Amino acid sequence: MTKPEVEFQPGPAPTELVIQDLVIGEGDEAQPGGTVEVHYVGVDFESGEEFDSSWNRGESISFPLRGLIKGWQDGIPGMRVGGRRQLTIPPEQAYGAAGSGHRLSGRTLVFVIDLLDVK
């Protein structure tokens, strides 16, 4: 797989988590609270500006879902290895309302996630 281009989404930012499968995987299924190995790109919904990407670092990343933002905890389970999924995550399920102390607080975020492995 290659680094995805994140499509600009017209209209107002969603108020609920939006899950869109871009590629359906055929491997093992990610479980709530499980550990996943992923490649991902994150962009700001409004500006389309990329703020993070494992692709730019040249290596995937592995972590337990329970340690991640709620949008990932809710949006990755059910995904299968080999799949690519886009999550559009409102601030409440990302880094909180504006002023919460994180540089991305108050922002709606879009991630395109490739699931490489589950543990």
TrEMBL record:
The keyword RNA-binding does not apply. InterPro entries: PPIase_dom_sf, PPIase_FKBP_dom. Keywords: Isomerase, Rotamase. Gene3D superfamilies: 3.10.50.40. Residues 33-119 form the PPIase FKBP-type domain. It comes from the Bacteria. Pfam families: FKBP_C. SUPFAM superfamilies: FKBP-like. The keyword Acyltransferase does not apply. GO terms for molecular function: peptidyl-prolyl cis-trans isomerase activity. Coiled coil: none annotated. PROSITE patterns: FKBP_PPIASE. Its EC number is 5.2.1.8. It catalyses: [protein]-peptidylproline (omega=180) = [protein]-peptidylproline (omega=0). Belongs to the FKBP-type PPIase family. This is Peptidyl-prolyl cis-trans isomerase. It comes from Hoyosella altamirensis.
